[in-house]
Design a protein that fits this description.
Length: 488
């Protein structure tokens, strides 16, 4: 039954992409997109829910759904659904990109659903090499979406994203080859890189080969995750992509690649004597330190959200690097809370940019005069991302820091706490400037009720409150133990 659901979950978006790529009326394409998105999200949640609730990994011949994968799968499903539902409004306000107007909708929808299918597949595929191939596939589809407006700045951002992340993935591939050579003696099959096989064989891995493979794989994946100092594609791509795609990049793509890095870390930890944790802690602190000055800068809204992504990927790296039950509980809550809040921020950018296109190139000011509904959504997003209680990100960051203390990483915790405090003040300052400050009146041409955004904001608020409750219940539960067990 589960295998049928997994196959259907991956097949439906691929079939939808094929159908949506065909020439046709925009209205029909919008309805097909919505119907396919609801089906895909339902299937993905049906696969994920049993693993989140109880039980160990469920596996087939080529797939596996473990508790950690199920959490990420649920996040990809929800963010994909919300982004798909937000896409028709984006396309309605768009013009000609690098494809003709009559083909723009089909091109966008086809690339979007292929991107979504690849993300879902990464979360369930039971092999490191295949996961790498799928991550590369996400690059191809999402780079086209980043550049889809056809603006010179968007084309540059798309190329930059494509080149830099492909270089990083090339480094990761070299690490996978080193790992395969180290593990494959006496086996010589691709199955050597199945997640359970890596767990079983890692204890016999030569320490030098294990360390080299770990550094290359995590260093290469860091480029795609957007960890500092190899994050330079991230602000440009997030800024230039259509808002629903920016939400997918920040709230679904980055965590999905991080899931692969997490699995590699857990699998190779016994063979690398704590080096994997040290690497993640280094990426985490570097990402926080690089992000904080930008959170204090006067930036356009989408660029501010992009640097917030850098900060939160750093928080997740710290949580994974601490390797303690409290930190693991915090990682789970943080992945979901960041995804919801960040996606809402990008969805809110759409009506704001329609009402005041100048906001794409200047700091966010007087947002309420451009779109009251958009300003409210931005306020919810930034307050949540800042970690202001009762945001679930407050609880998740607290759990991660407490987990760091339990792991004996006091110096790292102190440094992280200081950087998080500075990041909090920066985002609150940006919110006050954006909502309260005054600017010359903007054109209200095109202002319209944003009922869809209001509904999404209400749903996100409910889910964020539920996550805050989960953050209270999760520590000490059996779920955390299963999450730390990986796919072994």
């Amino acid at each position: 039954m589960t295998e049928a659901l997994v196959i259907a979950m991956l097949a439906v978006p691929v079939l939808a992409a094929a159908v949506l790529a065909l020439p046709g009326a925009r209205g029909v394409a919008d309805r097909v997109n919505r119907a396919a998105a609801i089906v895909v999200a339902g299937l993905a949640l049906a696969v994920a829910a049993p693993q989140v609730a109880a039980g160990g990994p469920t596996a087939g011949s080529w797939w596996v759904v473990d508790p950690a994968g199920a959490v990420f799968l649920a996040v990809i499903a929800v963010i994909g659904l919300l982004s798909a539902l937000a896409s028709p409004a984006h396309l309605a306000g768009g013009g000609r990109g690098f494809v003709a107007v009559r083909h723009a909708g089909g091109f966008y929808y086809a690339a979007f659903h292929l991107f979504w299918a690849a993300l879902l597949a990464v979360a369930v595929v039971d092999n490191l090499a295949v996961a790498w191939l799928l991550i590369e596939a996400t690059t191809a589809a999402s780079a086209l979406l980043v550049a889809s407006s056809g603006r010179p700045s968007a084309l540059e951002a798309g190329w930059k994203y494509l080149v830099l992340t492909t270089l990083g993935l090339g480094v990761a591939l070299l690490g996978i080859i080193v790992l395969y050579a180290g593990l494959g003696r006496g086996h010589g099959a691709l199955g050597t890189l199945d997640w359970p096989a890596i767990h079983d064989l890692a204890a016999g891995l030569d320490p030098g080969a294990g360390l080299l493979a770990l550094v290359l794989i995590l260093g290469g994946l860091a480029t795609k995750i957007g960890w500092a100092p190899v994050h330079s594609w991230l602000p440009d791509a997030h800024s230039e992509a259509p808002p629903p795609v920016s939400a997918m990049l920040s709230a679904a793509l980055l965590p999905t690649v991080m899931l692969v890095a997490w699995r590699v870390q857990l699998a190779l930890q016994p063979a690398t004597d704590g080096t994997s944790s040290a690497l993640l802690l280094g990426f985490g602190l570097a990402s926080l330190a690089v992000a904080v000055p930008f959170l204090w800068s006067a930036l356009p809204l989408k660029r501010l959200l992009a640097y917030s992504s850098l900060e939160h990927m750093g928080v997740l790296a710290l949580g994974m690097g601490f390797v303690s039950p409290l930190a693991t509980a915090g990682v789970v809550v943080h992945v979901a809370g960041h995804a919801l809040a960040k996606a809402l921020g990008f969805y809110a950018a759409a009506p704001l940019l329609r009402a005041d296109p100048g906001l794409s190139g200047r700091p966010a000011r007087a947002l309420a005069s451009a779109s009251p509904q958009g300003a409210v959504a931005v306020a919810v997003a930034l307050l949540s991302l800042s970690g202001l209680p009762p945001s679930p990100l407050f609880f998740s960051e607290l759990l991660i820091l407490l987990g760091g203390l339990a792991a004996g990483q006091t110096a790292v915790v102190v440094a992280a706490a200081l950087l998080l405090a500075l990041g909090f003040l920066g985002l609150v300052h940006a919110l006050i400037e954006g909502i309260v400050s005054e600017r010359p009146a903007v054109s209200r041409h095109g202002r319209r009720p944003e009922r869809g955004l209001v509904a999404v904001t209400a749903v996100v608020v409910v889910l964020l409150v539920a996550l805050s409750g989960a953050a209270y219940l999760l520590p000490g539960s059996d779920v955390v133990g299963r999450l730390m067990g990986g796919v072994a």
